[in-house]
Design a protein that fits this description.
About 40% of the residues lie in helices and about 30% in strands. By secondary structure, it is of the alpha+beta class.
Amino acid sequence: MANLADLVGAVIVEADVPKDVAIKAVEAVFEKLTDDLRLGRESRLAGFGTFYVQETSARETRDPRTGELITALPSRHARFRPDKKLADAVGSFG
């Protein structure tokens, strides 16, 4: 599993830059993705995929413990849709 340190390490090796520059670069990417999602915008990374926000509206549902009818509040969720290139590289699990 890759973590932030692994990503920074990969940038250091692949881009041949100092650690502080690699850290700033990786942080900048995540800040941009976060800002776009917070504002409800898509972030597309060609050959990788698209990060987007899915909004759900308020709806009636049932409490699974009591069976009582309740109102689920509207919500926003971050989602990811891989591009074909990434999907092909990963393969299918069907």
